[in-house]
Amino acid sequence: MKLQHSSTDRALGPDSPARASKPAGAQPTGYPPLARDFFARDAITVARELLGRLLVRRDEKRHLAGRIVEVEAYLGASDPAAHAYSGRTRRNAVLFGPPGHAYVYFIYGNHYCMNISCMPEGDAGSVLLRALEPISGVQAMAEARGIHLHPAPSITQLRLIASGPGRLSQALGITGPRDNGKDLTDLRSDLWVGDDGYRLEAIAITPRIGITKAADRLLRFVIKGNPYVSGPRAL
Q1: pLDDT tens-digit profile of 171-212?
Q2: Maximum CA pair distance of the chain?
Q3: Is residue 77 a contact partner of residue 85, using CB atoms and an 8 Å limit?
Q4: Which residue ranges make up each domain of the chain?
Q5: CATH classification code of 35-200
Q6: Mind listing the pLDDT tens digit for each residue in 109-118?
Q7: Residue 210: left if φ>0, alpha if ψ -120 to 50, beta else—which one?
Q8: Quick one: three-class SS letters along the chain?
Q9: CA-CA distance, 131 to 139, in Å (whole number)?
Q10: CB 93, CB 101: distance < 8 Å
């Protein structure tokens, strides 16, 4: 696949049926987890197709959900920036399969990041979730982040909830002890990725951010024009 810096392309082919987005605040209880086959593909394909899906947390009787608007692909043992690059360890074992599991790790001594394992088992590819657009349970997500929302919050304030890998983990209560290794395709899971029929129009592609190794690879994918992405928006 030929990628260009900040390039734009259609996420769905011209023959794909149009799909309307659910309104903000719609409860995502009717969206079952994506099947394992979705994740058993190369990391670039999975990353691109995760855009627009919902990351859902069932917390007691409520559901918290955010639309995935920014991701990065990590290509396993061939990628110097990937945690799997140096081989399998106790820490990164989740990356080696099976696909569709949460790989959650602590970074900089203060927050968790969540990847999803993909590729056929043993290939150790993954997708880092970098930003969400709050959709359901927004007040609870804000409280988890220590944010007091105004009665009519602005996008600037809403961006503070989940625009960044550490922020989104905190908003959905994602931690290593609670979620590392969790099967996101299991119907019994309290954390999964679902589809509410949202159709995105275009994807922007840039180098990954916040890393030093293989930093020039064009493996960061964002919903073009979405205001909830972290870092450079590639509009």
Answers
A1: 999 999 999 999 999 999 999 999 999 999 999 999 999 888
A2: 49
A3: yes
A4: 35-200
A5: 3.10.300.10
A6: 789 999 999 9
A7: left
A8: CCCCCCEEEECCCCCCCCCCCCCCCCCHHHCCCCCHHHHCCCHHHHHHHHCCCEEEEEECCEEEEEEEEEEEEECHHHCCCCCCCCCCCCCCHHHHCCCCEEEEEEECCCEEEEEEEECCCCCCEEEEEEEEEEEECHHHHHHHCCCCCCCCCCHHHHHHHHECHHHHHHHCCCCHHHHCCCECCCCCCCEEEECCCCCCCEEEEECCCCCCCCCCCCCEEEECCCCCCCCCCCC
A9: 17
A10: no
Give the model's pLDDT for residue 5: 36
Lowest mean pLDDT among 42-56, 206-220, 221-235: 221-235
